[in-house]
From TrEMBL:
GO molecular function terms attached to this record: DNA binding; DNA-binding transcription factor activity
Protein name: Transcriptional regulator
Every Cyclic nucleotide-binding domain range: 12-91
Keyword Transport in annotation: no
Boundaries of every HTH crp-type domain copy: 147-222
Cross-referenced InterPro entries: cNMP-bd_dom, cNMP-bd_dom_sf, Env_Response_Regulators, HTH_CRP, RmlC-like_jellyroll, WH-like_DNA-bd_sf, WH_DNA-bd_sf
Keyword Membrane part of the UniProt annotation: no
Domain of life: Bacteria
A GO CC annotation given for this chain: cytosol
Organism: Neotamlana nanhaiensis
C-alpha cells in the first residue's frame, strides 16, 4: 500500500519550517499547546499553515447534530491547514492538540508563497504533499460509499499497520502502536462505537487480531481474511 497521508516518509518539518531559512529565522517562533487546546476553529480566517514539531493534532468537524467527525490524526513532521495555500479564506474544519506537549510551527500564507516562489523544489514538495492528502481523502470516501463496515475496518487496520506498525520477527505477526481511540477509529471508518467494538471482538474471537488501548496485533493469518 502506498503511503498517502505521510509525505513519502519524509519529515516535512525538517524541510519546510521557516526557521530553517536564514531570512525568516529571527522573526519565527513556535506555539505550544496542551491536550484539548484548539489551534483553530471552523470559520476562523485561513491565513496560516502549520507544521508539527512534536505531539499530535486532530483534524475534524462537527455535523449539524453536533457529532464530531474525525478526518485525521497527525503527528511529528506533518502539515495541516494547507488549503490556505490554495486560496481558502475560512476554515471548514477544526484542529485540536491531543497531547500535552504539542509544538507547532505556524507559517503565514504570504511566507509560504514567498518560499514557494523562491524555491522550485520546496514548491514541488508542498504541492505533491497536498496531492497525496487529496488522494487519501478520495480513497476514504470510496471506502465509506462502497465497502461494508468490516471491510472498512480491515483496510483501515492495514493502513494503520503501514503507518505505525512493525513486524514481529519471532511470530510473523505485525504490531501497531497507534494514537487513536475507539471513538476516533469509529469516526474515521464511518461507523458507530458499538459496531466497531463488535467487529473488533469478532476479529479477536477469530484469532485475527488482538488489541488493547493503544496497540493492535495483526496475526499473520490476517492476510487470508476477506
Amino acid at each position: 500500500m502506498n503511503t498517502l497521508w505521510f509525505f513519502e516518509d519524509v519529515n516535512l518539518f525538517k524541510i519546510l519550517c521557516p526557521h530553517k531559512f536564514k531570512e525568516y529565522k529571527t522573526e519565527h517562533a513556535f506555539n505550544a499547546y496542551n491536550k484539548e487546546d484548539y489551534i483553530y476553529f471552523a470559520e476562523d480566517s485561513s491565513n496560516k499553515v502549520f507544521l508539527i514539531e512534536k505531539g499530535k493534532v486532530k483534524i475534524g468537524y462537527y455535523n449539524e447534530d453536533g457529532t464530531e467527525v474525525i478526518k485525521a490524526i497527525l503527528s511529528k513532521g506533518e502539515l495541516f491547514g494547507e488549503k490556505a495555500i490554495l486560496g481558502e479564506y475560512k476554515r471548514d474544519e477544526f484542529a485540536q492538540s491531543i497531547e500535552n506537549t504539542t509544538s507547532i510551527c505556524p507559517i503565514s500564507v504570504d511566507t509560504m508563497h514567498d518560499l514557494m516562489r523562491k524555491n522550485e523544489t520546496f514548491s514541488f514538495r508542498v504541492y505533491k504533499f497536498i496531492g497525496f492528502k487529496f488522494q487519501k481523502l478520495e480513497r476514504r470516501l470510496k471506502l465509506l460509499m462502497y465497502k461494508d463496515s468490516k471491510t472498512r475496518l480491515l483496510e483501515f487496520l492495514e493502513e494503520l499497520c503501514h503507518e505505525y506498525g512493525y513486524d514481529c520477527k519471532h511470530t510473523g505477526d505485525r504490531i501497531i502502536h497507534h494514537p487513536y481511540t475507539q471513538k476516533d477509529i469509529a469516526s474515521l471508518i464511518g461507523t458507530s462505537r458499538p459496531t466497531l467494538n463488535t467487529l473488533l471482538n469478532e476479529l479477536k474471537e477469530q484469532n485475527i487480531i488482538a488489541f488493547s488501548r493503544k496497540q493492535i496485533r495483526l496475526y499473520k493469518n490476517m492476510a487470508n481474511v476477506s
